């Protein structure tokens, strides 16, 4: 890659639905949404996939992001009551963490 490139967005490098998102691009250096040359091409992505495979079944995982300061639901989470209940519980936990970080517990 050229020196000014941001690099591969590891969140978009996993094989499931690889490069199918509207914002995703296969062109390096075009945006921060570069999915990589192929699905699972990055060492970090492969390491996470290997960990999840080795420790199957993993019942839950939390992936913290600071870029948008948002909770983003996973691909497998469709608009169902169970999913919404899980997201409500996750949101309440995130708000509690935020209050703790701001000293408002």
How are the SSEs placed, and which strands pair?
Blueprint: H1 43-54, H2 81-101
Shape category: globular
What integer is the average pLDDT? 78
Alpha plus pi helix count: 2
**How helix-rich are the residues, as a percent range?**
25-40%
Structural class: mainly alpha
Strand content: under 5%
Give the total of beta strands. 0
Uncertain residue segments:
none
Spell out the helices and strands N to C. Answer: HH
Largest sheet: none
Q: C-alpha Rg, in Å?
A: 16 Å
Distance between the termini: 46 Å
Quick description:
This protein is mainly α.
Care to describe what's here?
By secondary structure, the protein is mainly alpha-helical. Helix content is 31%, strand content 0%. It has helices at residues 43-54, 81-101. The mean pLDDT is 78.
Which short descriptors sum up this protein?
mainly alpha, 31% helix, globular
């Amino acid at each position: 890659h050229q020196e000014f490139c941001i690099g591969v967005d590891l969140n978009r490098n996993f094989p499931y639905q690889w490069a199918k998102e509207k914002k995703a691009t296969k062109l390096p250096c075009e945006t921060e949404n570069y999915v990589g040359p192929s699905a699972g091409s990055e060492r970090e992505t492969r390491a996470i996939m290997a960990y999840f495979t080795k420790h199957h079944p993993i019942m839950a995982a939390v992936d913290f992001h600071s870029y948008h300061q948002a909770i983003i639901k996973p691909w497998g989470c469709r608009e169902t009551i169970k999913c919404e209940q899980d997201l409500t519980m996750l949101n309440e936990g995130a708000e509690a963490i935020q209050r703790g970080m701001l000293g408002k517990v």
